[in-house]
Each structure stands twice: as structure tokens, then as C-alpha cells.
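FORM 7B: Structural annotation worksheet

SECTION A. Query
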Amino acid sequence: MTIVDSLFAPPTERIHPTKQKLLDVVVALLQEKHPENIKSEEVLEKSGAVKGSLYYHFEDFSDLLESAQILTFSRHVEGVLDGLRDALLDNEDPFSARSAFESEALHRKLNISRELRIERFNVVHGAITSERMRLKLRPTQEQLILRWMEIIDICKSRGWADDLLDSRSVAILIQGANLSRVIDDISYNHVDSVAWFRTLTFLLDSFFFGGVKDIQA
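SECTION B. Predicted structure
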């Protein structure tokens, strides 16, 4: 078990089924609607929960929406990180690892919808403007930073990445690069998806495989 695994092992206490159902319904609705267009009546109807249960498990309806937004954000990024980590652990040869890493990144990055990118941006923006949202997001965000740090540290330990790189700085910069495509979403002229991926791949290569010479493009 890695340090990250031990820090963020699943808790022994299980989430209450009604609370989980409420979260799952809102997570599903967030795939179709902006948070402002999701109403408590619709959530209660789809979940089968009563109003009292909602306010037992959450401070208010906004608390439920914020929690579901963070859960959506976390699930997607955790899926990306799981795939990238496995690509490294399953391949000890740097060239095979790099190829698997790129394939995983290609699969994940080109399948991120505009709506999901904006939703991720909304979560970060919400944490800037709301103290409650910030306090709720912090543990999840710290977990994601540590997961990225684990990936760069795997590459460092194998001599593929420059040992002088600060792993936390890389983790934050990579996440910033991913969020930055929202800027393209609101521009008149959009970057070609393949061109964007090639640019992102160049950035990832420089961090994770910068110490490996002669990797073929």
C-alpha cells in the first residue's frame, strides 16, 4: 500500500443509503442540467426520498448540490489518475510506459465533454466564492494533488523524470492546464482537439518522461 493509499483508504463507516441515493440522483442530473436548473422537488421525486430526509443529511439543498458537484469532479479525475497510474505500473520499460500513458491520456482527454469541463470549472469557482464549498472541496483536492504527486514520483524513482522537479508544483500545474481549456470553450475560434492533445502530450512528456532520451513521437 502506498502512502497515498494509506492516507485515503475507504472509510469503514458506510454512507447512509438515502444520502447516497440523493447524491446519485443529483450527479446524474448534473450530466443534463446546470446546477441552477435542478430543483429539490425533482430530486425528491427521482430519489424517492422525503423532504425531511434531505434536510437530515444536508444543511440545505445547496449543500446537496455542492456535494454532488464535488463528487462528479472527483469521480472523473480519479478515473483519469487510476488509468495513468496503471499505465506506469504495468510497464517497466519507459517506451512501453510512455505509449500506454499517452493512449490512456488520449482516451480520457478527448472524451471530456464541454459540459464536464465547465462543471469542473464551476466547482473550483464555487470554492473561491463560498467558504462552505471551499472547506468541502479541500480534502478532495488534496487527495487529487497527492495522486498526481504519486504518478510523478513513480517516474522519478525509475529515472524517467527529473528528480529536481517539485512534485507538488507539477501536480498543480497539470491540473491548471486541464482546467484552462474552458478558456477555449468560451472563445470564438476553438483549438482543434487533436492539436490540443498533442500540446498536452508534449507537456506531460516533459514532466514525466523528460529524463528518457530518444522517445519516438
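SECTION C. Observations
The two ends are 34 Å apart (CA to CA). DSSP finds eleven helices and no strands in the chain.

SECTION D. Sign-off
Analyst initials: ____
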